[in-house]
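Q: My labmate handed me this sequence with no annotations at all. I'd like to see what the chain might look like in three dimensions before we decide whether it's worth expressing. Could you predict it?
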Amino acid sequence: MEKENKNITIADVADALGVSKTTVSRAISGKGRIGKETRERVLAYIEKYDYKPNVIAKGLAQSKTYNICVVMPGEYDVVDLTFFQECLFGIQEIAGIMEYDILLSICKNNDISSLERIISNHKVDGVILMRTFVEDAQIEYLSTKEIPFVTIGSSNYPGVVQIDHNHKSACRELTSYILMKQLKKVALIGGDERHVVTQSRLRGFREAYQKMGLTPDENLLYLNLENSVLVDKMVEEILEKKVDCILCMDDAICSRVLKKLRMEHKEVPRDVKVASFYNSTVLENNVPSITSLKFDAKELGMVTCRTLLDLIDGLEVKQRTLLPYEVVLKESTK
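A: Here is what I predict for the chain of 334 residues:
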């Protein structure tokens, strides 16, 4: 066998060591009764000959597919794609190490038919949801199935394992910084209120005002701006109200706001200050540089995948994990 450069099997290992295939299987899995010396002999042998278990056979033996499903929303701005890509890179890195493959499902307008088909056909061992909704058909469906799942983003549904950045705290901190600069008129531009992350960012914004004994001007809060036409219209209205600062809930909205300000010949930060509750490569290249919140999307994907694989293996995990953030102060709010 030393001369042959081929994939060896459990049977090959068993024959070479004079033990049963069951003994080899137990040594590899760490389950079942087997002597310490025998286990060490088996493990030393398979390491020497670079034995890799056949994934299909391994899956059948352990009732696993060695696949996980990642559900990506169908509605996103082109700027959002960077976030989802970074998350996927993190998920893939951990999944690959653990010899898992990824099935990608696209869920558009809460249509979960693709997810339902994957689950009903028993194609995966677990699911990662990349976006959460206030009323979430994905979570409601998965909660009725005996399959582990984890959300990227917070959820108000009880018992859901969720991994998120601390958006509320981050938005509260950045808003507090803006208010401490004595900026009296602050406008907030946000996206879809059905998304949990929008609600979290809005709570952080309000808490910053409350902490300083102030009340936000409700006439300067603009939500559900889902396209550039709506954003442009609201920016025109905001400029008429002569605000001191425009706070954008994410990088996609902020990118459009900056474009519209240039079209209106408004200079940042001289004419109006701008900040974003989420950073991206698009904003990083802007002149002037934009004050924003920085989150590590790849780390988010890695932690989420590790958590899901622990769940699949029956290990106990935290119900909610909040990852850190960084407030990056730049030229746009000077």
